[in-house]
Amino acid sequence: xxxxxxxxxxxxxxxxxxxxxxxxxxxxxxxxxxxxxxxxxxxxxxxxxxxxxxxxxxxxxxxxxxxxxxxxxxxxxxxxxxxxxxxxxxxxxxxxxxxxxxxxx
Length: 105
Description:
With 105 residues, the chain is mainly alpha-helical.
C-alpha cells in the first residue's frame, strides 16, 4: 500500500554493441613510427580556438548577468536599510512623543 510503483520507461531502448574484431595486420617495422590522430578537444579551449568571437560574446554575456545580479542585490540591501532607517526614526519620534505626553500629566 505504501510502496511507490514506478511506470516502466518506454523511451529508453538499450542498444547492444558487439565488439568489432581487429584486422590482423603485419607488425610494423620498428623504424617507422605510427602517429595517431589527436583526441578531440572539448571545453572552453576548443571554443576559444574555433570561434574566439563567440567566446568573447559568451564571456561578455556572463559578465553582464553577474553584474546585473550584483547590482540588484546591492539595491535590495540599500532599500532595506533605508526602510529600516525610516521606521527607526518614526519609532523614535513616537516614543519621545509618548514620554512627553506622560510627563505633562
